[in-house]
Amino acid sequence: MLQTRGFALIVSAPSGTGKTTLTRHLMATQPNIALSVSTTTRGARPGEEEGTHYFFVDKNRFETRIEQGCFLEWAEVFGNYYGTDRGFVKEHIEAGHVVLLDIDWQGARQIRDNMDAHDVVSIFIAPPAQDKLEIRLRGRKTDSEEVIQKRMQQAAAEFSHWDEFDYVVVNDDLAQAKVELSAVLVAERLRRGRMQATIQPILKTFA
């Protein structure tokens, strides 16, 4: 198979929008997708494996790597650092993979600031309406009323940044949303700039 250049695919969405279901569909149906593995300072939980779920480092090592510019984005959450390794993403892009990054709008902004624009594609998954999002959150029956209200507030804050993304998929009908998300991936793989390695050998046959 002829190889195209890969890219980082950022997918962001408020909690309850169906992002996990949609990204799992991409991973299961599209070739050459690598899920980004974050680096963290928190300890490994039972069943988590180094290099599969996270890269585990201590706080001093993480802070040194921040100073060295090793992260495309990073944040401190509840006393632990989390970051996206620049080398990991670059290696997969050059190998022709799509690197899937499940991050919020703040992380997406950092990624865009720290990568070449042609190597980043971003998608915002939106709910069809606020009330439908709340119904979905309540339907999961996993959160208290306080948590649900907090998630709704967070959703409003995240939704205000929808226009910072390249594409918007409204997840009203799940089957349609899957088609639309896959269509973005396929179209972006066929961009002229990513097809150089594929086209050059073909051009030589016409010389």
TrEMBL record:
Key word Ubl conjugation present: no
Q: Which gene encodes it?
A: gmk
Q: Which positions, given as ranges, span the membrane? A: none
Q: Which CDD domains match?
A: GMPK (cd00071)
Pfam families attached to this UniProt entry: Guanylate_kin
Naturally occurring in which organism (per UniProt): Magnetococcus marinus (strain ATCC BAA-1437 / JCM 17883 / MC-1)
From the broadest rank down, the organism's phylogenetic lineage runs:
Bacteria, Pseudomonadati, Pseudomonadota, Magnetococcia, Magnetococcales
Instruction: Describe the function of this protein.
Output: Essential for recycling GMP and indirectly, cGMP.
Which reaction equations make up its catalytic activity?
GMP + ATP = GDP + ADP
Q: What is this protein identified as?
A: Guanylate kinase
